[in-house]
Each structure stands twice: as C-alpha cells, then as structure tokens.
Amino acid sequence: MPFAVRVHATGGPEALVYEDVPVADPSPGEVLLRQRAIGVNFIDVYHRNGLYKLESLPAIIGSEGAGDVIAVGPGVSRFKVGDRAAYAGSIGGYAEVRAVRAERLVKLPDGIDYDTAAAMLLQGMTVRYLLRETYRVGPETTMLLHAAAGGVGLIACQWAHALGATIIGTVSSDEKAELAMENGCTYTINTKRDDFVSGVREYTNGNGCDVVYDSVGKDTFPQSLDCLKPRGLWVSFGNSSGPVPPFPLTALKGSLFATRPTLLAYTATPRDLEDNAAELFQMVLSKQIRITINHRYPLSRAADAHRDLEARRTTGSIILIP
Q1: Using DSSP, how many helices (H) and how many strands (E) does the chain show?
Q2: Sequence-separated (6 or more) residues with CB below 8 Å from residue 78
Q3: Which residues form the Enoyl reductase (ER) domain (predicted)?
Q4: Pick from 92, 97, 189, 290: most CB atoms within 10 A?
C-alpha cells in the first residue's frame, strides 16, 4: 500500500502524519500518477494550520507534483500509461501515488525533469500570471517584490529581469540579498535592518513603484501601499506572516488599485493552464529562468520541511521525494 502524509486535525507541523493510505482506481476523467517529486509551498502551511479550510479531515495536503501516469480512467484521451506529467493547484499531493483530474495535468516536455517540474510549476505559473497578466511588466516598470529570495521570488526576479524591469526586492538577511541579486534583482532591502518604505523612496527618488507584489501579508501591510505611485497596483497573493486585516477603501489613497489573484483563477480552463505552463516551460528551456532547488526532504519528513519553511530557513524551491 502506498504511503501519504495526512492531516487528521489542523495545527503545527506535528499535524502531518506519514501513513499507509489506500488508492482507488482512477474515476472517469482521472489519471493515476506515481509521483517522483512533490513541491512544497506556503499554501500547504495554510491548509495544515487551518487558515485555508480543508473540505474534510483527514486530508492529504500538497498542491504540486510530477511523475508517471500508471493508469487512466474512462474518458481520458490526452494521457496514456507511461506519460510524464505534472500538475499545480490540485490538492492531495503529499502522496506516493495519487489521482488527478486529467484536465488539470500538463505533459512534461523533454528537458524538464521531475524534480524541476515539481519545484517550478505552481511557483512558476504564479509568476507568469503575476508578471504577464495581473500587471503587464516591461522595461518601463519599477516593481517592489517582497520575499525576493523565496521560491516565487527567485523565479520572479529572473523573469522580471528578462522583461527589463527595475526590481526592488525585500529580504531578511544579507545572504538572501546576495542570492536575489544573483537572480536579477536590481536593488535589495534587508527588512531586518532597514525600513523598506524608506528604501523604496530612496531607490525611486521619491516616485514610488508601479506595482507591489506582496506574498507576506500582515507584516508588510499597509506599508506596501506607501511604496506605490498614484494609480499604482498592490498585488496581495500570499500571507506568509499572517492574513492582511480588513481595511477601509480610504486606505487606497492616491487612486490605488488592489487585487487578490489566485492561480486557479488564471488557469481555470484547460487552455489557460496549457498556455500558462507552455510559456513557463519555454522560459526554463531557453535558460532565461533557472530553477533553484536548495532543499530536498523525504516525503516522510514533510513536517521538517514545514518547520524550515515557516522559520524562513529556506531559499528557492523545496521538494519532497516519495
């Protein structure tokens, strides 16, 4: 019987239980995937601790992985046994074997291995919609990117650099500042030592940024709004420090815009998913983006991965190996 990591009651990393879990044959429209690598993302923490409510318990968390198709359900024509495939946004990933809706899977091109796919698909497609759709970044763009040395951050630095943007990145250490700069960040601000609002004003000569990409949440709000130009856009796409508290619309002074995008909204149809993934794969295969996997854990040590992620002891992407 294959193993999986389940949450029986929401809580800290100790809530992750490694155990035997039976796997049924794939239902109509599903594919059974033997996973080779599993991505770890902050949304997994939110599911584990109850910030994002799970449909029922016990539950297998994890929203990203890559592996081999070992069975297909009735009605599936896009995949066959032996295909290499990956997914992002389908909860149930912390498992050796799992079923996935075929419409939520993408085929892996030659040149993309399992580890890279599991480390990049959710984070990379997030970066793609943030930079290409939520706000269309270009050479004229000045942006503030919080957590610039994280998994999303390093991909975003490289992609925004390729687009010609000026990138101001926040980090929590000098080592992370160096890493962000190596990946294309223009300027960095160590928030353990310096005030990022003052830093943004200095770097922009008081003009502010066109867009702020904020995955931190509580600890960077409402200061992120003070970093924007009039009519600038604040993009809140995560809450690693806790959720943003309710705020009045009058906080959006200067005719600011605010949005809370999600990957599922930007990949809602199979065509959207394929287009998003295809552009990401092209950026990686052309070596404009390098995926940095600095942390690998056995699936049985998922709790350790969560502890390190929450303690900000990680940089780049994190994967679990079944």
Answers
A1: 8, 16
A2: 102, 105, 107
A3: 11-320
A4: 189
Tell me how far CA of residue 195 lies from CA of 125, 135, 224, 226, 233, in angstroms: 30, 25, 11, 12, 20
- The full set of domains in the chain, from first to last, is 3-121+291-321 (3.90.180.10), 139-260 (3.40.50.720)
How does DSSP assign 57-100, residue by residue? SSEE---EEEEEEEEE-TT--S--TT-EEEEES-S--SBSEEEE
Question: How far apart are alpha carbons 80 and 92 in whole angstroms?
Answer: 21
User: Do the Cβ atoms of 143 and 165 come closer than 8 Å?
Assistant: yes
> Which amino acid would we find at residue 185?
C
The answer to whether the CB of 197 falls within 8 A of the CB of 227 is yes
Q: Give the chain's largest Cα–Cα span.
A: 61
Rounded to a whole number, what is the distance in angstroms from the first to the last CA of the chain? Answer: 13
pLDDT digits (tens, 9 = 90+) for 260-270: 999 999 999 99
Contact 34, 67 (CB under 8 A): yes
Burial code (b: 16+ CB inside 10 Å, e: under 16) for 155-177 equals: bbbbbbbebebbbbbbbbeeebb
* pLDDT score at 128: 98
pLDDT of residue 267: 95
Q: Which residues of the chain have pLDDT under 50?
A: none
Joined together, the tokens standing for residue 190 give 């160590």
